[in-house]
Amino acid sequence: MKPGEIIVNNTDIEVNKGLLGTILNVKNTGDRPIQVGSHYHFFEANPALQFDREKAYGKRLDIPAGAAVRFEPGDEKEIQLVEYRGNRKIYGFHGEVNGSIDESRVYKPNLNSAEAPKIEDDGSKNANKESGYKS
Fold first, then answer.
1. pLDDT, averaged in runs of 10, over the chain (135 residues)
2. What angle (nearest 5°) sits at the alpha carbon of residue 88, between those of residues 82 and 89?
3. What pLDDT, on the 0 to 100 scale, is given for residue 56?
4. Are 58 and 35 a contacting pair, CB within 8 Å?
5. Which CATH number is 104's domain given?
6. Does Cell inner membrane count among this protein's keywords (predicted)?
7. DSSP assignment, residue 20?
8. Which pLDDT does position 134 carry in this prediction?
9. Total domain count, the chain
């Protein structure tokens, strides 16, 4: 071992393991590319992104920290969101929350209904995750 060397296991890392995802279709209706980072409150994303905003309240992209999803003008993608964890307080962004998340507004898919079928794919149908629940 060398000083400062980091030894890691040779295994895959699954981000947000065990968290229930909400999958939404998102379309960039603007004339400029839009990029949304991993920890951005998706509910407050650029208004040119067209999607069911109420289902995005209290949620962020289900991608590794530091990553982002880019939407070119006219792009339509299926993305997966997960709920914020920790103390569940959101500050900044567009200033629409600035405090504790209103739990009554957080969308929870009903796993027993046909409304939330589980998606299993090779990743080509979902911009950032291999499985989740369609809202």
1. 88 82 95 96 96 94 94 96 92 89 84 48 45 46
2. 125
3. 94
4. no
5. 2.10.150.10
6. no
7. P
8. 47
9. 1
Predicted local confidence at residue 8, as pLDDT? 84
Six-digit token string for 21: 């995802």
Looking at residue 17, its pLDDT comes to: 82
Instruction: Return the structure tokens found at 49.
Output: 């992104």
On whether the CB atoms of residues 78 and 125 are closer than 8 A, the answer is yes
Is residue 67 classed as helix, strand or coil in its secondary structure?
coil
Amino acid identity, residue 43? F
128 contacts 64 by C-beta, under 8 angstroms: no
Separation CA 24–CA 50 (nearest Å): 10
Residue 130, amino acid: E
For residue 2, being part of any structural domain is answered with no
- pTM reported for the whole predicted model: 0.74
Residue-range definition of the domain harbouring residue 48: 22-126
Within 10 A of 4 (CB to CB), how many other CB atoms are there?
A: 5
